[in-house]
Structures are given as structure tokens and as C-alpha cells.
Design a protein that fits this description.
320 residues, 2 strands, two-stranded antiparallel ribbon
């Protein structure tokens, strides 16, 4: 019975977010409204707004009061994705042309800026502490994105985690923290939820890295094809001798040449090497560590349906 109630709660929360997001988008009367609609209504998991609402309700807060703040996090996330697609030259987003590809780079940049500006506008109505927490997370996200451009095979594991903590976990942590604040959390409850968001965000990125290395039949790793470095590659490079490192460098050079057949074969050879050396298993262990930290973060909170919903979200990260 409880499982059914939990499933219903999570479905209803996501459906309500979709409804309120649609209302917000269709209320816009701006020159960039078509682009905002395109970006915001093209699907997505809505994890960040869900965390805001569930965090607020887990400490006794009102979902209705937290909803605008939840939408602000979804706007910030989508604004950053628009910019990411330009930086990474990704042609598609969620099965549709990336916004810059459908309009232009300039239009996409302005749309991303517009969405992020709206997040600050919305968050400002919640008071100084929430606005500061929200703004700081966007600053960290930008710093993380910049550092990510500098990531190389010679980077350390510590550097990698610093990057994903900023780039991937900052908005999750702020979503949980701001949800706790708007819900009237105690100091201990705030710390619990803030840690939950941080650990959830790190685990989420590790799972994303692993899923990319285990593509569907007939597919190859998109990140490796685009020359993106992840923790599995850093681990492999770190345990390799000089001869093996030269072989890895040469394989990545072939991938960078982007000849379809040779490039795909080279990607598959790298993935095979990651499997043989235990580098993928190493990342799986790291993911499980952060999954455990995510779950443990909520232990001090009182048991209720919303805490269980947050735990359910965490459990989706348990395995790659």
C-alpha cells in the first residue's frame, strides 16, 4: 500500500510541475517566448524541481509555496543546457534539434540568459538567503563548466570530483537546500537535505558517465566520440605505464579525426580496455559509495512520505 502511495505521490508531483511549467511558459509575452517554450517544454526528468518540492514537504513545508522556486530551478537547468549545447557543439537535445541549431547561436545565447535571469527574478521573492544560495549555485555551475573544458587525461581524480561537484551537483544541492529553507527546516534538517542534494548530484553524474560507456546495441560512447574525459579514462590513464599511455593517446587521436568507421572502432577499443583493466568497475564502486552517502544523508530526518520519495529518487542511482 505504501509503495502505491509513494508511486502516486511522485507521479503527481512531476505532473504538477509539468502543468505549472506550461502555465508559466504560456504566460510569457516576449520576443523570445517561442524559444523559451521550445527549450522548456521539450521534456526532461524535472529532478531539480522535484527535489525542491519534496525537500520542502519533508520538513513540513507547503508545496504550493515552494512551487515557483521549484520552477526557477528548472529554468536555471534548461538555461545552462542551452549554453552547454553551444559550447559542446551538440546538434540535438532530447531528440530534437538543439535550440542554437534550430534558430541561431546568438538567439540561443540570449534565450539561455533570459531563463537564468528569470530564475533570479523568481528566487528574489523568497528572501536574501534563498536568493544567495541559488545565485551561488549558478556561479559554481559556471566555474565547473569552465574547469571541465580544461579536463585532460593527466587530471587527477580529485580534480574531476571538484569539477562535477561544481558543474553537476551545485544545482541539486541548492535545490535541496532552498527547498529545506522554504519549508522551514531546522538547522539539522537543512544540513541533511543539503548533503543529500550534493551527494545525489555527484552520484547522478557518475551514473551518467557509466551509462555512456554502456550504450545500446550498435551504439558507441558519445562522450568518447566527442573527446570528453571522464573518471574511467582518468583512472585507466593513471594505472597505465608509458607504453600503454602512448597507445591510449594514439587511439584518442584516431577518435578525434572523426572518420566514422575508424573512430567507432577506436572508441570500442578504449571501452574494452576500460573493462579489462577494471576502470569501469572502479567507477561503479565510486557510484555505490555516493549512493550510500546520499541515502545516509536523510537518516536523521523524520520518516514521512516525502522523505521516502527522496529515497526513491536516490535508489534510481544505485546501479548503472
Amino acid at each position: 500500500m505504501l509503495n502505491q502511495e509513494l508511486t502516486t505521490e511522485m507521479h503527481e508531483t512531476k505532473a504538477l510541475i509539468e502543468l505549472e511549467l506550461s502555465k508559466f511558459v504560456f504566460s510569457l509575452e516576449l520576443k523570445l517566448s517561442p524559444q523559451a517554450k521550445y527549450a522548456l517544454l521539450s521534456g526532461g526528468k524535472r529532478l531539480r524541481p522535484m527535489i525542491v518540492l519534496l525537500a520542502a514537504q519533508s520538513v513540513g513545508g507547503d508545496r504550493k509555496k515552494a512551487m515557483p522556486l521549484a520552477l526557477a530551478f528548472e529554468l536555471a537547468h534548461n538555461g545552462s543546457l542551452i549554453h552547454d549545447d553551444i559550447i559542446d557543439k551538440d546538434a540535438f537535445r532530447r531528440g530534437k534539434l538543439a535550440l542554437y541549431n534550430n534558430w541561431s547561436v546568438n538567439t540561443a545565447m540570449l534565450t539561455g540568459d533570459l531563463l537564468i535571469a528569470y530564475t533570479v527574478y523568481i528566487a528574489s521573492s523568497y528572501g536574501k538567503k534563498i536568493l544567495k544560495t541559488f545565485s551561488q549555485s549558478i556561479i559554481e555551475l559556471c566555474e565547473g563548466e569552465y574547469m571541465d573544458q580544461m579536463l585532460s587525461l593527466n587530471s587527477t581524480e580529485k580534480e574531476y570530483f571538484q569539477i562535477i561537484e561544481s558543474k553537476s551537483a551545485s544545482l541539486f544541492q541548492a535545490a535541496a537546500s532552498c527547498g529545506a529553507l522554504v519549508g522551514g527546516a531546522s538547522k539539522q534538517e537543512y544540513e541533511c537535505l543539503s548533503n543529500f542534494g550534493k551527494n545525489f548530484g555527484i552520484a547522478y553524474q557518475l551514473k551518467d558517465d557509466l551509462l555512456d560507456l554502456k550504450p545500446s546495441e550498435g551504439q558507441v560512447s558519445e562522450d568518447l566520440k566527442k573527446g570528453r574525459v571522464n573518471i574511467a579514462l582518468i583512472h585507466l590513464y593513471g594505472i597505465s605505464n608509458s607504453f600503454e599511455k602512448k597507445a591510449i593517446d594514439e587511439t584518442l587521436r584516431i577518435i578525434a579525426m572523426k572518420g566514422q568507421i575508424k573512430s567507432d572502432l577506436a572508441v570500442k577499443s578504449i571501452v574494452k580496455r576500460l573493462e579489462e583493466t577494471g576502470s569501469i568497475v572502479y567507477v561503479e564502486k565510486k557510484l555505490y559509495e555516493y549512493f550510500q552517502l546520499t541515502v545516509a544523508s536523510l537518516d536523521p530526518l523524520k520518516d514521512n512520505l516525502y522523505k521516502l520519495a527522496l529515497l526513491q529518487m536516490a535508489k534510481s542511482l544505485e546501479r548503472s
